[in-house]
Specification:
The chain is an alpha+beta fold. Strands 1, 3, 4, 5, 6, 7, 8 and 10 form an eight-stranded mixed beta sheet that branches. Strands 2, 11, 12, 13, 14, 15, 16 and 17 form an eight-stranded mixed beta sheet that branches.
């Protein structure tokens, strides 16, 4: 009897011991090391080299679509904002100033300021890359004038508003659309519009370089007029759109030959583009000052020494035209 009880107790003890051994220990979590082993080290990704620090090739010309949104840095390599737009005179292609967005968080609370074009230097990663990744601003940003919204009757336009406009021929027939603008910030000019013509005129995936000054605005400003024939268009410079990101635009023969109307200032217009003028010297987009022209656009008052309007005129302390 006693031996039977001993055998039963031994069997129960062995069964309990086997059950305990089969149970898993406490979970250490997904990916954790088992108890008693060293946990493998995890290295966070570095994110690669900063585009700003790797940008060493200065671009003499760039496209507006690629410039907008690029970060701007001061002389101490501190990010201060980004490029928002440019204000141009579509009659000549002259850039009045570049609009930069400074401050704010994720586009909220930022302020737009007007920067003379010659205070900006644009860089890409290498000579084989034409896409800007960094803009440097010479001088401080504290004294830059605010940029305000352009008046609807202003003769000037935001570059981004020119892009996307339809182009008609002299007979009113739509023949193309402005795809982009080629900018020379150091010269203070939007030298060319890159135009996508309808297939029967230009062919697929080909853009033509048309001087901005040749594109005339309609009175309603909803489209542009270009006096060109299909035969003469074949003599204009063109390029494959897919190659633009690698193309040195400043080295193209048609860019080097550009000048004349593109760089000329209209009579009576303030010559502030590209200058290092002080705050408040930029022309205001909504100024009522100036004389009427035959086309209905207004000419701002002539600038005095240093880019400021002459005594007695409005606009000396007015903010510059902006993107908002």
């Amino acid at each position: 009897m006693n031996s039977t009880r001993k055998l039963m107790a031994l069997a129960v003890s062995m069964a309990f011991a086997g059950s305990a051994a089969a149970q898993p220990g406490p979970s250490t979590g997904a990916g954790d090391s088992p108890r008693g082993t060293a946990s493998p080290s995890i290295t966070a990704p570095t994110g690669g080299v900063s585009p700003a620090s790797s940008a060493t090739h200065e671009l003499k010309a760039t496209r507006l679509s690629k410039l907008r949104g690029v970060n701007i840095y001061d002389n101490n390599a501190k990010k201060i904002g980004e490029v928002a737009d440019v204000v141009i005179d579509p009659a000549t292609g002259r850039i009045l100033h570049t609009i930069v967005s400074i401050g704010g968080v994720m586009g909220i609370g930022d302020k737009e300021h007007a920067v003379p074009t010659k205070q900006l230097r644009v860089f890409s990663r290498s000579a084989d890359d034409a896409v800007p990744v960094k803009v440097e601003l010479s001088g401080g940003s504290q004294s830059l004038p605010r940029a305000e919204k352009l008046d609807k009757d202003s003769p000037y336009l935001l570059g981004s508003r020119l892009v996307g406009l339809d182009i008609n021929d002299g007979g009113g027939k739509e023949i193309g659309e402005v795809e982009d603008l080629v900018l020379d910030l150091q010269a203070g000019e939007a030298k060319y519009a890159l135009v996508d013509f309808v297939d029967s005129w230009g062919g697929d995936d080909k853009l033509f370089a048309i001087p901005v000054a040749e594109l005339k605005r309609n009175r309603d400003s909803r489209n542009l007029v270009l006096n060109v024939t299909k035969e003469s268009l074949a003599q204009r410079p063109s390029m494959d759109e897919a190659r633009l990101d690698k193309m040195d635009l400043s080295a193209q023969p048609w860019m080097q030959a550009a000048g004349g109307a593109a760089g000329a200032s209209p009579a009576g217009a303030p010559s502030t583009a590209g200058s290092g003028g002080s705050a408040g010297s930029m022309p205001a987009g909504g100024s009522d000052a100036g004389s009427s022209t035959a086309t209905g656009s207004r000419t701002p008052p002539s600038a005095g020494p240093g880019g400021t309007p002459p005594a007695g005129s409005a606009g000396g302390s007015q903010p510059a035209a902006g993107a908002k």
